[in-house]
Amino acid sequence: MKNMKNFKMMPVAVALVASFAAAQSNEDVQKQLARQDAELKRLNAELTELKANGAMTAADAALETEVNRLSERLAAATTVKSGANQITFVGEFRSRYMLTNSDAAGTDRSNFNLVRVGTHYDFSKDITAALSLQNDYITGQGIADNDFRVYESWVEMRNLFGMSGLTLKHGRQEFVKGTQFQFGNEDWNNGLVWDGHRLDWSNESFGVTGFLFNETGNFTTVDDYTSGLYGTLKSIKDITVDGYWIRRDAFNSDTFGGRVGGMISGIDFNGEIAVQDANLADDPMALELNAGYMFSKDNKFHAHAQYALLENGYVAPALNLGADRYGYALSFAGSGFPTGAAANLESFSVGVSFDPAAAWSIGANVFFNDTDVAVTADDSYTEINVGVDYRYSDNCTISLGLGYWIPGDDTVDEVFLGYLQARLAF
Description:
Blueprint: H1 2-20, H2 26-52, H3 58-77, E1 86-102, E2 106-124, E3 127-140, E4 143-158, E5 166-173, E6 194-202, E7 206-215, E8 225-233, E9 239-248, E10 253-264, E11 267-277, E12 285-296, E13 301-311, H4 321-325, H5 329-332, E14 345-357, E15 360-371, E16 380-391, E17 396-407, E18 415-425
Antiparallel strand pairs: 1-2, 1-18, 2-3, 3-4, 4-5, 5-6, 6-7, 7-8, 8-9, 9-10, 10-11, 11-12, 12-13, 13-14, 14-15, 15-16, 16-17, 17-18
Helix pairs in contact: 1-2, 1-3, 2-3
């Protein structure tokens, strides 16, 4: 009777183990399948012995049918193979409700949605491949847009040619450097990826990246290649120094720039300057200076100030600097600044942020901008922004943002901006 009790419990145990095998690594699954196969063979042997001794009952016959069925399923499962040792799922779900209001234009409401789902495949400790698909769509007053595409598709090979720190990454990929002043992923919008290749070498003190890219989906010029070198010095304690050269074929321009950032005596700082040789009468240039101080580590009370100057039609390689760095008004004005029409800008801003509770963050800033983007007659405006983040979990954040745009020209309406967003990233 003891053996029969083991018989009746074993099919249930086998089914439970098989159902959870997919959550393990490929190597673990193969080991588990081998153990289950051995156990089923043992059960079949005991059933055969019972049958030979004439001790089979109706219940035992039903049990034999169940064991045979599980054996067939196990045999089918062992034919599934994977070349990857580990598969990781990544993605993002984001929904943002946005509202603008002015006396002249009235109220405009729109929903900006993004779904991105993908996988990373580790074929060995030095080879990783990735594939992600994205659908971003907008609905609202006078807007209907739906864009489904491959967001990323790349292969990364580390320790290339047996050289420690040498990495080749080719395919469609994000490219983020420094504070995203030159290269970023436009995370506020729908992301930014490039088609091409990058070769990185780094050690504890220094790193350099060479790249050859064609921006995906943002330029109409098919052969608009962006190439260059980006180096980072890491040997100075608490300070990072970057230097770069960027070549843009479409504009026949070369950009030379550098950045210094880090922390000294509790003050976090960043300074970056770039000059473009674009065969113009006056060479475009860009300057950005940031400084901040955290007054309390308990509630992370932090104050910061920023100054920026973009002159003579400076054009960044790809990143839309406006909405992320110098207030939302530039983005809402439809200028495409600064990747579209050339624009000049002088901006100064101050702000504070703090965490009133463990899961909450509150921030506010004020921008004083002077630009030749055609948003006001005298080219100046002030913008006040307030934002609240609630971290519901490690992966999910709910955000509320409010902005008030005050043009320097009295004939132009003030504009109220607001958004409510839920974002799940994994």
